[in-house]
Amino acid sequence: MKFLKWTLALLALLGVVLVGGSLVLPADTRVERSVLIERPTAEVFATLNSFRRFNEWSPWFGADPQAKYEYTGPAEGVGAGMQWSGNRAVGSGSQKILESQPNQKIVVALDFGGSAATATYLLSPEGSGTRVTWRFETRHGYNPLNRWMGLLFEKMIGGDFERGLGSLKHLLERPSS
């Protein structure tokens, strides 16, 4: 009986530490990567302002070649959307362009089956090319589990962003045939 009391007390203390500790963790998470693409800003913008070419450079496309994709709304700009459904590696969700400032910025709402986030593509001329910054942001509110998970986002998607931007760079810089 004494063992059971100690076990319950320890579990209660662990719960308090996990929940209480989460309150000192950030309520927001941001992951950001950038790359210089040796192409005019208008060309880079045109590729990012539509989801029709997203899978040509997406770091997740190869994780499930059998995934299903559906495009909604206009072909480009505000309202353009894409829904996907695939295996565990890609899951299911949707993305929709919320804001489109020509040659400067594209803001995308992300929904991963109830978990909302925002992706932003920032474009700025740099030399003869374009600096593209891909930013992911999400709010955790007071959800303790989400706040703890927020600590892992950098490791979970940082490499994906680097691969995706590398693929975008390769796609846009390759010679036309």
From TrEMBL:
InterPro entries: Polyketide_cyclase/dehydratase, START-like_dom_sf. Pfam families: Polyketide_cyc2. CDD domains: SRPBCC_1 (cd07818). It comes from the Bacteria. This is Polyketide cyclase / dehydrase and lipid transport. It comes from Pseudoxanthomonas indica.
